[in-house]
Structures are given as C-alpha cells and as structure tokens.
Amino acid sequence: MSDRLRDKLNILADAAKYDVSCSSSGSDRKNTNKGVGNGHQSGICHTYTEDGRCVSLLKILLTNHCIFDCAYCVSRRSNDIERAAFTVDEVVELTMNFYRRNYIEGLFLSSGIFKNADFTMERLVRVVKKLRLEENYNGYIHLKTIPGASDELMTEAGLYVDRMSINLEMPTEVGLKLLAPEKSHKDVVKPLNFVRNQIIQFNEEKKLIKSVPKFVPAGQSTQMVIGATAETDKEIMHTAAAFYQNFSLKRVYYSGYIPISNDSRMPILGTQPPLLRENRLYQTDWLMRFYGFKVNELLNDANPHLDTDIDPKLSWALRNLHHFPIDTNTADYQMILRIPGIGIGSAQKIVQARKFGKLYIHQLKKIGIAYNRAKHFITCADTPYQLNDFQAHQIKGFILAESQSKYLKTANNQLLLF
Amino acid sequence: MIYIFDGSLEGLFSAVFEWFERKPGEVSLVTVKRYQPDVFTPALQIITQREKADRVWKGLAKKLDSTWMRRLYTAYLSEIDEVYHDIFRFAIYIFSHPAGAEKNYGNAQVLHIAQTSRKVEREKHRMEAFIRFQKTADEIFYCGIDPDYNVLPLLINHFKNRYADQMWLIYDLKRNYGIFYNLESVEEVEMGIDVSMLKKQEKQLLDERESLYAELWRNYFKSTNIVARKNTKLHTQHVPKRYWKYLTEKL
Ligand code: SF4
C-alpha cells in the first residue's frame, strides 16, 4: 500500500510542479484550540529544489485525469501518460505527516478536471474541510480553483483556505485561444471577480460583527506561462498590471514555458526555458509593486521588450538621465528608490541617517548600496567633481564591465532580484 | 580601562550601569574568557547584578522601540565578543544623546548591531525552515541542531504556537542544551549523555511509520524538481551546504 502511495505522490507532484507559486505568505491564521499549525506572515521556504525554487508547500494534484486538452499542459487529455488519483484521506494523511515533521508550511492543492468542474471542486473542498474540521489543522492552504465551479462551492472553499488562485495561463486571449480553444480569459475573470467581491463583503461584515469568519485571508494569485506563444514583454506586464489593479491580486507569477510536447504551435522539445526573461519580468513586477514605477514607464510602445543585458531599473535610469544625478542628501525617498544600486532597505536607511548630518561616500557604502553602480546616478557630500558628462551607453558600458559575470552568465530566477 | 564581565546579558548591562557611576572615559568590554591581563591598562571586574541590569534595560526600553530592543537581544545572542563591546558602547551612546540617536546609521555601533542582529534573525529563520523532526517511538518529535548563533531562545514561540498538540524537543548539540515542549509549556533541558548519539535517532527508537514519511518526502522533493531549470548555484545560495545535514530530503 505504501508503494502505491509513493507512485501516486511521484505522478501527482510531478504534474503539479509547473505551477511556480509556492508562497505561504500573507496568512495570520492562528492555531486555535491547541491544534496543529498556524500561518506565518512572510512565509517560510522549508527547502529549495535543485533549480533554486522555494519549497514551502506540498504541491500536488488531486488527480491528473482531465477532460480538457490544453496544449501547454502535461495533463492534457491527448497526452499518453500514467494517470493517478489520490483519495481524500491520502491527501490529508500526507499533509498532516509532512507538516508535523516541519517539512512544509502547508498544502497547495489543485487538480485536473474529471467529469465536470463541480464534481472536481467538490472533492477539493472535501479535502480542505477535513483538514480544518477533523484534523484541527491551521497551516497554510492554497487551493487552485476549477474554472466553472459553482459560486456555492467557491464560497464554501473560501471559508477554509488561505489563498485561492486560478491561472490565466496565456498572457493574451489570442494566445490562449491558439493553444486551448476550449478556454477563455473570461473563465478566469469571473471567479477572480467573484472571490474579490466576496473578500470585500466579508471584510465589511467583519468590521461590524467580529465572529464573521475569514475569507481567503491571503488573497488571490494567478500565473501566466511565458514564451509558449509570441507575446511581447509589454503585453505580458500590461496584462499583469491590469489584473493586479482590477482584482486586487496578491501576486502574478510568470512561468517560463518548459517544452513538454512536439506540438508545432509551441517551442519544440529541448528548447531552453526562458529563465532570464522570466527573471526580468519578476524584476519589473517588483518595481511596479514596491518601487512605485508605473508599468508604462518600464514598458511602452517605444520599448516593448525588457533589456536582457541589464535589469529594468537600470534601463529606466539610462533612458531617463535627465532625472539624474540625484542628491542623496536632499532627494525624496521615492526618487532615492529609483537610483540603480539602491534597494528599499538602503533607501530607508539613507533618509533616516541623513537627519544626523550629510552623508559621505564611505557611509553610503557601509549602509550597503551597490556603490559602483549607484555612483553614476548620485551626488553626496564628497562626490568628486566631474568634468565629463557621460552618455547612457557609456555608463552602461562601465557597469557591465564591472558586473559582467554576475548579470550575464547566470540565468537567475524569481528569488534573486536586484 | 578594561571592564571584564561574565558573558551574560545581565553582566553586560551591569557594566553599563557601572560606567555611568564612575564615568571612566574610554572603556573596552571583554568577557572573562577572553580577558588577557596587560600591565598598562587597568581592569575592573564587573559584578553581575540583576537590579542594575534591569534598570539599564528599562532605561533603554524608554528610549528605544521594541524593534531596537529586540535587535540588542538578538545581537547579544550572536556570542561575538566585539558585539558585546558594541552593545556596551551603544547603550552609553543612547543614554548620552537625545531620543532618536539609534537611527544614526552613520554611527559604527548602530550599524554593526543592526547588521549582526540581521544575521542572527536570519539563522533563526533558517532553523524554523530547516529543522526536520523525527517522530520517536515515545511520540516525541525530535531534532538536533548546531547553529552558529545561540538561537534556541528565539525559536520557542514559533514552535510552541505551531506544534501545540505534539511533544517536541529541539536540541542544540553545540551548546549542549535543548528546549522541550511537554504539551503544556516549554522547558530548558540538558542531557547527560554523549551528544553525538543524538545527531540522528537510531532506527529502533523511532516511530514505525517514521521511515515511510521520510521516504515519501524524499520522493516528493525529487518529483517537484524541474530538470530543465537546474541551477545549482542558486540552490546552494539558498540552502548553504552546512545545513544539508539537517535535511531529510538531502540524506
Ligand atoms: S484543464 Fe487544466 S489540467 Fe486540464 S489540460 Fe487544461 S490546464 Fe491541464
């Protein structure tokens, strides 16, 4: 019996791994009634795969049987692979035993669609309820919901899970129609919208009546596959920006397409996944969410693609040299954030420290800014007087010469940002 | 002038108290263990006194927010000698300046304490992530660790809140003490036996299903990897090799 369980785990973890989200953050669920588990506000990565991705959750499919035939998906109906399905009890047993040993922060459950949307969703909800109600489990649960499931099931699930997601899959409707003619972005928009409205409504009620339960406390996320079809970076990030705005998403994930078939509509087997591009998209996402950049400043008709050799923050600075140099002793926090080589932590330290006197180069270095990069864009108390006014391409040359190994050779992924 | 203290946090703050009593000017603070007599510099043995230390702690708490108080404590747990001296200097600096002086990152002690504290917090966080319990035959979830810094005191809350319905024991093999949760409260324990025995529990002492779940977890770890994305550099950056010995999935 344990052999069969192991085989199922291998098949259903393998099929689930293309969902890159493994975040366990944003839940403040408490361990009530002396049960087991709680949320951790910023999440915990318990280990990392050999490709350097965070492993926080037990990420599995309930089953990889599916009635659909989406070309980019390993579980598609026409694919000749081994199929398996967990029972509700098996998922609960694995989750509890992994959790108790501190292997994981929780469960990320999704599923291929067998029979129909509601039938599948109903099973998923059973797992979630059993964990919460019978096992007294308060750890993290991320449920990837099934497009087309009924509002009742969605609402019921929302009462027990921490995060819900539903994937856009392709960044544009055209791309989606090409690879999954049975699907449409509308199928995603409807549940995202429904859940967003429910969250707002529950929060409103909670203000009045304390006993109102939490509803999807860690919010919603989505994922787009990058590089399966021919979108520009601009199209991808404008879609992301719109979804962040319209559905108050917590995260948008970008997953470089890993060829899984010889379908002529997509990159062929053996093509390298676009990891560098994926990294640039995450950097852009970061700049939008934490650095106050508007998507249009980073990607527009004149610049529809992100540079590959330099990060998007440096690209923006080089295109906008008229804003520089910025005086670190007087500039607004918002402007300091825009200086290449200065991250959020250093920017905050700078604005605090300068209240005690003008900052000098050696202090900026100690604070931890990447001075060799930043020096082209700043002045401080002892900036050497400079005769020549460098052009953008010259500055880029200097920076690249210094940081070549770091920025060109490794194709980093989401966790290595600036 | 050299102040010698016993290495405890109370001792350190007693030294601060002492300094304000005598105002001897420049003083360097060292632990008894590290002190090397030197004929040219007078030394004073600090007597650890709880009440004095408390007064210093409370005085600091009036001028610093809870983030900074925690920074002092966590930096202290680094057990780094220079950091003891930095905390000593920092306390004097804070008492001698108007409120807000801790925000001056241009000050060497401010910066060093903040940076050390971050290192300790990072190791605490890593322990929260990398600890792998093994369930023993007597139903205790056990893990032995050997952290660079003395982080056990920082782990109590996290594990107590999370694993409230199972007994667990986390043992610092380097410092030879552990924290044990008995379903009611967490107590400090010391085991008289050879600690090398505790590295990994022997098979017959484990719960019968233990090896099954460890095996399933290793399988999961393999299956969730995407070969096409392999990036060993990034992997070891996140999971430095010195922690691999903790990890069930790496065995
Ligand atoms: S519906 Fe989901 S599981 Fe089924 S083929 Fe499409 S993407 Fe894959």
Write up what this structure looks like.
- The complex is a heterodimer of chains A (418) and B (251).
- In chain A, helix 2 crosses helix 3, helix 3 runs parallel beside helix 4 and helix 7 crosses helix 8.
- The C terminus of chain A is likely disordered.
- In chain A, the strands form three sheets. Chain A has a six-stranded parallel β-sheet.
- Chain A has two domains: 218 residues, TIM Barrel (Alpha-Beta Barrel), CATH 3.20.20; 90 residues, no CATH class.
- The longest helix of chain A is centred in the middle third of the chain and has 24 residues.
- The radius of gyration of chain A is 24 Å and the shape is globular.
- With 418 residues, chain A is α/β, with parallel strands linked by helices.
- By secondary structure, chain B is an alpha/beta fold.
- Chain B has three domains: 120 residues, no CATH class; 77 residues, no CATH class; 42 residues, no CATH class.
- In chain B, the strands form two sheets. Chain B has a five-stranded mixed β-sheet with strand order 4-5-6-7-8, with helices on one face. In chain B, strands 2-1-3 form a three-stranded parallel β-sheet.
- In chain B, a hairpin with a 4-residue loop joins strand 7 and strand 8.
- Chain B is elongated.
- The mean pLDDT of chain B is 89.
- Classes of the chains: A alpha/beta (418), B alpha/beta (251).
- Chains A and B meet through helix 1, strand 1, strand 2, helix 2 and helix 12 of A and helix 5, strand 4, helix 7 and helix 8 of B.
